[in-house]
Design brief:
By secondary structure, this protein is an alpha+beta fold. It has one domain: Sandwich (Jelly Rolls), CATH 2.60.120.330. The chain is 28% helix and 17% strand. It has ten helices and twelve strands. An eight-stranded mixed sheet has the order 1-2-10-7-12-5-4-3. The protein has a four-stranded antiparallel sheet with strand order 6-11-8-9, with no helix packed on it. It starts with a helix and ends in a 17-residue tail after the last helix. It holds the Pfam family DIOX_N. It comes from Arabidopsis arenosa (Sand rock-cress).
Amino acid sequence: MEETNKSVVDDCFTSAMALTDSGFLQHVPTRYILPPSQRPMLGSSIGSDTITLPVIDLSLLHDPLLRPCVIHEIEMACKGFGFFQIINHGISSSVVKDALDAATRFFDLPVDEKMLLGSDNVHTPVRYGTSLNHSTDKVHYWRDFIKHYSHPLSKWIDLWPSNPPCYKEKVGKYAEATHVLHKQLIEAISESLGLEKNYLQEEIEEDSQVMAVNCYPACPEPEIALGMPPHSDFGSLTILLQSSQGLQIMDCNKNWVCVPYIEGALIVQLGDQIEVMSNGIYKSVVHRVTVNKDYKRLSFASLHSLPLHKKISPALELVNENKPAAYGEFSFNDFLDYISSNDITQQRFIDTLKKNNL
């Protein structure tokens, strides 16, 4: 750990948060400036006034009479966007508020304290960093993050930040709650594909959960930078909590659509594992994160996937003579190996899995 931390520091590590805290920043440093073709069109209303993004009341899943209607809503959302928002999801507002509070306290710590967990090794189970990978990114992204494995909680929590003292308890409660929620969502999505709801039951019990806690500080020039580049997530589902608006998804016409902030709602994004399992019936959603000039934005991305070495492939029930398997199999570990040596802004990992018949 000490050698890794030292290499990051020696590489002139400067986080987006540290730049903002300096108080004198009027322009973003050159390394954050995107090529013109990749810059966000802030203030543009492309898609935002012509498209309605799905919001689903998840509590209705528990009503046997209404469950089929909710499953159909989820099917339409997955086919249309690979994305939906959920309300009445069962995670209390106090648990959400406490998690955001703990994250705020962590990112407000002195940089030397946070750098105790600094690493540019994507395989490290708990790591603090900036951009995507500070040591390899050609263009940097206006983000600080702390990522940690979160399931089973008892296995990983001792490695989490000890400062602030409330972090383990408050973020731990949120991580456990999202793990329960993930199980409900996977069952519903499996049903919506015509599979048994317990199709992935064994994998869910042993699944990998990575909590990516993100801080996007106020940015002096948000029109030429991004918090995260366009990408899709590697896992089955990502459950996202955001403190304010900033997420954008790409629609079927390749337009960027702003995801509205809804008080108390959580965002559900399909990942590459669901695209592969569904044999392309559902697609993982391409998304990015914009930044703003006026305030700091926080998000919790609870990234769920099959166990580290467990391979996923198209469900046999969704493969036939007319629709052969369109993807090769892969595991979470395969994804980590890929991003260790490849630029995901140049090629999505899932594109390497697609077969010629797609």
